[in-house]
Amino acid sequence: PFCTKDKCLRTPRSDRKRRDSFGMFDGYDSCSEESTSSSSSDDSEDEVVPSIPASLPIIKNNGQVYTYPDGKAGMATCEMCGMVGVRDAFYSKTKRFCSVSCSRSYSSNSKKASILARLQGKPPTKKAKVLQKQPLMAKLAAYAQYQASQQNQAKLKAAVTRWGLLSALITSVPQAPMGTCWGDIEVGVRIEVPNSDTNFSTKVYWIAEIIKLAGFKALLRYEGFDSDTSKDFWCNLCIPEVHPVGWCASSGKPLVPPKSIQHKYSNWKTFLVKRLTGAKTLPPNFNDMVQENMQFPFKKLMRVEVVDKNYLSRTRVALVEQVIGGRLRLVYEESQGGADDFWCHMYSPLIHNIGWSRSIGHRFKRSDITRKLDGQVDAPPQLFQKTKEVDQSGDWFKDGMKLEAIDPLNLSAICVATVRKVLADGYLMIGIDGSEAVDGSDWFCYHGTSPSIFPVGFCEINNIELTPPKGYTKLPFKWFDYLRETGSVAAPVRLFNKEVPNHGFRLGMKLEAVDLMEPRLVCVATVTRIVHRLLRIHFDGWEDEYDQWVDCESPDLYPVGWCQLTGYQLQPPASQSNAIMLFILLPVVP
Description:
Blueprint: H1 41-44, E1 75-77, E2 84-86, H2 100-108, H3 111-119, H4 135-163, E3 190-194, E4 205-214, E5 217-222, E6 233-236, E7 243-244, H5 247-251, H6 268-276, H7 286-293, E8 302-308, E9 311-324, E10 327-332, E11 341-345, E12 351-352, H8 356-360, E13 363-364, E14 377-378, E15 402-407, E16 410-422, E17 427-432, E18 444-447, E19 453-454, H9 458-461, E20 466-467, H10 479-486, E21 510-514, E22 522-531, E23 534-539, E24 548-551, E25 557-558, H11 562-566, E26 570-571
Parallel strand pairs: 8-14, 9-13, 16-20, 22-26
Antiparallel strand pairs: 1-2, 3-4, 3-7, 4-5, 5-6, 8-9, 8-12, 9-10, 10-11, 15-16, 15-19, 16-17, 17-18, 21-22, 21-25, 22-23, 23-24
C-alpha cells in the first residue's frame, strides 16, 4: 500500500537531568512536611501495618525492586520517607527514622501533609543520600496497587464491551521503545502536562488522569473535571512535556487549574491533596527511561550483509545510511547516489554481520569495492538477532522435503514449498512450488526454527487457505495425493517451531505495521486473524489481497503512536488520507 501524508512533527527532546527525587504518589509511599504532632518516636514504633494478601510480591512499586542495599547491617531506611543511608546518622534508638520530622509524621499518619510537601517541592530532611526505598513502604504501595488493579480490571472490561476494538499493547511489542518497562502505565495514573485551557501567555501545567490507553497514546482528563469529558484530549505519553506528579514543584514550574473550572474550588491545594492521596504517577525517571530506550546500537556507515531485494537467494553488503526508531535504511554497496536502498528493522532476520553468508554457505554477491571508505566499519556480530542453536547431526531437514511456508513475494499467501538446500547453523533455502526460477534466484533463506514455515497440514488444521503450486490442476489440493505424485516426503512435524508466546494480541487490535512488500512504509493496520503465534495483518483502507501473515514477535509491528514518537512517517488509511484517524480512540486490554 502506498499513500502520502505530511511527515509527523517530532517534538524536540530535552536532555535536561531530572531533578526530582520523589517516589511520587505510588501507593502509600510519600514524603512529609514538618508535623506539629508531639508523639515520640517510641510511640510511632507501635504503628500497625495494614494486612497484605500473602500472594502479593513485596517488590512491586513503579516497576522497581526495593530491598536493603546489599543487606548491609550498617545501612538503615526511614520508614516514613524511604530515605536510605548510614545507620548511625538516623534518629532514635531503633534507627527507624532519618529525622524528628519523619518520626512525628509517621506516628500521626499525616498522609495529607506528605502530599502537600510533594506539591510544594519540599523534600524531607536529608541526613543520608537517597539510594532506594525500603521494604515497608513497598509493602504498603503493593497493597494499594493491588486494590487499584482490581478496580481497573473491572473498568477496562466495561470499556472493551463498549468499544469492541482495541489497540495493541506496548508490552505485546517488546522491540518497541519502552516495550519492556511499560507495565505500570495504566488507567488512573496521574501526570503533569501543559495546561491548554488557560489565558496565560507562558506555559503552565496541570495534573491530568489517564482515562484510556491506546499504544503510546493516552486519553487524558484534567483534575477537577470529574465526569465532564468536554476537555479530554489525546497525548503521547513519551513526549518531553509529560511528567510525573511533583515535577512542577521540583522544577519551579507553575501548576494552574484550567480556566473552565477555576471557579469550582476556592482552595485548589486542598483539592489536590485529597484527590492525589494514594494515587499513582509515572516513575520519577520516566523521561530518562524514554531517552535511553530511544538509543540504538547501529550507526551510520556500519557495514552489514542483507538480502538482495532483486535476487532473494543471495545477500549483498550494504551500509547503514539512516536509523529511525531502530529501523535501518540500508544502501547497497556500489549503489549510484544511494538510490538502491532497503529498509528493515535492526532485529530483522534479513540482516547479518559481515562474513555470515560465507560461514553458512549462503549465496553472496561480491562487491567490486576492494577497501572500506573513511568512517566505514563492520557492524559487530553481537548487534544482530541471535537464532536458536539446533543439532543438525541427527534428525533434521533434508533436501526435497515438503512443507508449508509464507511466500516472501506474496505475504498474504501460505504456499506449498520445498526445502531446496540445507545450509549450516540451522538455515534452509526454501522454494515455493510451481513458481521457482530456473536458477533458484527466488529461493528464500529461513531458519529451521522460523515461525514462517509450517509442517504439512498446518493450513488445513487451522482453516487457512493453502495456495497450491502454480498450474496444479488437481483441485481441491490434497497433500496425500501431491506427495505421492511428486515422490516426496513431508518434513517431520517435530522439526518445526511449536512455541507460542503469550503475546497479548487480540482480534481487532489497531497498530502501526510495516508493509513488508514496500518496507519503507509503516501503515495503519488491524489484526484480523490470530492462529497461535501467527497474525493476519490488514492495512486499513486497502483490499484484503494486501493482507500479510506476520509472526507475533515480528520487529515490523509497532504500537499506536510509535511513528509520532520516533519521527517516522505514518501512512494513513488509503480512504482516509485527509481524515482524523479514529483508531487512536480505542481502549487497551491490560
